Amino acid sequence: MSVYPYLVAAWLLGIGLYGVISSRNYLHLIMCLTVVQASTYVLLLSVGYLNGAKAPIFADIKLGSRVTDPVVQALTLTDVVVEATVVALLLALVIQAHKRYRSLDPDEMVRMRD
Amino acid sequence: MSQLAPLAVALPLLGAALLTLGHSALPRFPSDLLALLAAVVSAGMTLALLVHVGGGLTVYWFGGWRPREGIALGIDFAVDPIGAGLAAFVSLLMAVALLYSARVTDVEPPYYHVMMLTFLAGMVGFCLSGDLFNMFVFFELMSVSAVALISYKVSQQAALEGGLNFAVINTLGGFLFLLGIAVAYAHTGALNLAQIGDALHRGGNDHVVVIAFALILAALLIKSAVVPFHFWLSDAYAVALAPVCILLAGAMSEMGLYGLGRVWYAAFGASMAPQAGTVRAVLVGAGLLTALWGSVMSLQEDHLKRLLAFVTIAFVGVFLTGVGLLTADGVAGTAVYVMADGCGKALLFACAGIVQHRLGRLGQRALHGRGRHLRFTATLFIAGGLLIAAVPPFGPFLGKSMIEDAAIKAGYGFVPPLIVVCSGLAGAAVLRAGARIFLGWGEPSGSSDSADEATEPEEEAQRDRTPAVMAIASLLLLAGSVGFGVWFGFADLAQTAARRFISGAAYRAIVYGAPARHLHAGSASPQWYDWLYCGGSTLLALSLAALGLWGRRGRLGRVMERADSLAAPLRHVHTGRIGDYTAALALGVGVLGGLLTLTLR
Fold first, then answer.
1. Do A107 and B577 touch (CB under 8 A)?
2. What domains are there in chain A, each with its CATH number?
């Protein structure tokens, strides 16, 4: 395993955080959040990856052959489910905000409050 | 008996599922009743579990997948007295909150009840879990339910904003948690806390371990709203419904601290022991900073619920200081203080809810003297303020003395005076607000801060009776906060529980199947100087409140204005923008990771 997947994960984390910090639009902000989330996928999957190993399904391969780690794949799958819920909820809130205030700009909402 | 552990999580989920099935066909009253029943039965189960566990540790393996040859493939609930106690506390608080919400008008069945029950399941599961990844899942279940509950009143802009801020920051926290788990798994090949601890214990300390711990620590500190991760809390708690606030303020922030203790003692503590000094300094430092920040800000706020939100932040700081001492005494003190003070803060939020229900608004200056006829609520609120200031000899007094004794024993002699100042300031903020609203003391200020007032649009209706369920729920919370101090034997139980909590080696052995041996703990009762400290904080709170009410004239007034202008920069940092909060979060994670890696030897 090379170091590149870890660099990709770090890059996704950094660029996603930068996006959340600098975002001027709630939809864009939530997409940036999913970019940060992608870094967790990459990290989890690369942790369990082995060069030249098969998928961990023992239906057509011999027991004891080299396979990738199924645990991290299960974790990634759980992560996808959990975060899909979070993103759905966030998007629902953003739709409500847009319906009522005709704006997706966080700064606009802060200004309207004052 | 250990089967009760999964049932205590499954039951609220089952209740939630039934309520969802009932859908819109189910009117208000049966929904309230069913949800309350689920919470009460869950509380009964966790209490039975607590009694059963005693000073030991009960492990439940799902599907009977016990560990073999040191490898835990299965998933476990490892129930110790601190975890079971916190779960029971949360369930009881939930029962009180559901009782309280039976007369809250903006609540519609069944989704409110469903969210409350999934919230409960998340918190109880988090308390009982012995598996790092399951902790993450329950952590997220807790967050998602909390988001839905905080922005429940979607018609209000502040509720939407508060919910979005909370959701984004806590989701980022969840990602950090998961990254930490991935790194820990890569290093140890385990997700079970005991197995991680075992592997780390054999493998020793290095950069990878420290990075994993720093990521998980950051996530848990975000959840507990420790400076500089705390910005979301005041936005969110200010807009949530009062019964939701009872749970948020009473228990949710403390979940993060519990998780921190659990992860440290069961998994990372053994191998990171050479760095324990750094970890202790970081946690105590962050705790004291949070306590000061929260208590100073609470004096700056006009909006009653925002004020109470900052009081919550202040006490999270005190709790973090207690846990961060990394001693059994510190954990025991925190356990007592969390319950006693949690009831106190919940009581104050319940009173704020009654004020809003009766008077339709929450700005202190706008409400000046308008609560004179609310004698019952006034009594409860002032009592809550005194409890927050740790008036002896009630619950918060006991908890605070235990933390102070632990700090002195650990060689942090400067901690107790700082805690006294913080609880004095926070108590003063609450008492001053109570005196303004309910007694009409101090000068009425015509120019009310409109910015604060606008965070919660007014409810038009003013009602002339406090519903009985709200009064009963508030009385129960008062009884809880007072009650923990009446019997000092409670401190001894907490000492035993804390000794079990911090013994990581015994935890790992028992999870692997060794029998739990009984632990003996020394007894603890407050020393003479604790009475002085807590008397001091009460006096400080009373005099500062009086100063805030009447000291606005002459030379004294100028000093006060100077103090206010010193605190002004703190106010301006709370911008309400997610971007700013995330920047603070990134900075905090960087500093935390930097401190821990640079001090690695």
1. yes
2. 4-113 (1.10.287.3510)
Instruction: Nearest chain B residue to A96 by CA: give it.
Output: B154
Before B6, cis peptide (omega within 30)? no
Amino acid at B461: A
Asked if the C-beta of B192 comes within 8 angstroms of chain A's C-beta atoms, the answer is no
- Closest residue on chain A to B590 (Cα): A14
Per residue in A57-95, pLDDT (tens digit) is: 888 888 888 888 899 999 999 999 988 999 999 999 999
Nearest to A20 among B140, B186, B582 (CB): B582
Stated pTM of the model: 0.93
- Omega before residue B110 within 30° of 0, cis: yes
CA distances from B441 to B149, B154, B301, B447, B541 (A): 35, 36, 17, 17, 16
ipTM above 0.85, yes or no: yes
Residues of B in contact with A29 (CB under 8 A): 168, 578
Of residues B35, B15, B148, B194, the one with CA closest to residue B101: B35
With contacts defined as CB-CB under 8 Å, which chain B residues touch A3?
none
* Cα gap B273→B463, rounded to integer Å: 58
b/e map B337-376, b = 16+ CB within 10 Å:
bbbbbbbbbbbbbbbbbbbbbbbbbbbbbbbbebbeebee
B573 Cα to chain A: minimum distance (Å): 14
For residue B21, give every residue at least 6 positions away whose Cβ sits within 8 Å of its Cβ, in sequence order, or none: none
Would you say B453 and B363 are in contact if contact means Cβ atoms under 8 Å apart? yes
Interior CA angle at B369 toward B364 and B375, to 5°?
A: 105
pLDDT, tens only, B21-72? 877 677 888 888 999 999 999 999 999 999 998 888 999 999 989 988 888 8
